[in-house]
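Record 1 of the preview.
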Amino acid sequence: MGRGKIAIQRIDNRTNRQVTFSKRRSGLMKKARELAILCDADVGLIVFSCTGRLYEFTSSSMKPIIERYQEAREDNNCRLLNPISEAKFWQMEVATLRQQVQNLQNNNRKLMGEELSDLTIRDLQFLQSQIEISLQSVRKKKEQLLAEEIMQLNKKGIVLQKENVELKKEVSIAHQHKIELQKLSGESTSSGDGDQESGSSDKVPSRSTGHDASEHINLALSIEGHPDE
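->
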């Protein structure tokens, strides 16, 4: 069975309270350390126990973090207390962002080979180095895609070769069956011709017998026609 849900309230038993504090403090320090490492954040953690003992964790140094916290809090309070200052702050932010967009657009046009008349030799050299770096990245990506495509084509070629071998086997088997059928057909034809020859030889004597009978009849008629002789 799992542990029961702990009520979030003060623990009356001093020993249990101290054990819980030790466990929760270790977990809190671990989470603060992970937050600083994973997110590259400046973390400052200060904990006082019920006995007044100090526990702290900082990702860099506690004093600069506290000073930074105080300055940020004062700036925030000033902006909240003075709406005019806050409006000016956001106006400056908007102007800065617009200038950044303008610079990016100008840089993009220069990379495209436009508006180069006001550039010095050093500016052109810097622009050339940027273009070469971009070309290297493009070539690298292109070579990667070509290598992947060649690999896929090689795999398809291997599959097609296997299919071709299987088709050749099937064609060879079909050709062998055709030859066997032709042999069987030739043997049956030869047997039929032999039967026809034997049947013809049996009919020849019957024809000769009929011819002899007609000769006997003619001879008898000739004898009856000449009784005096």
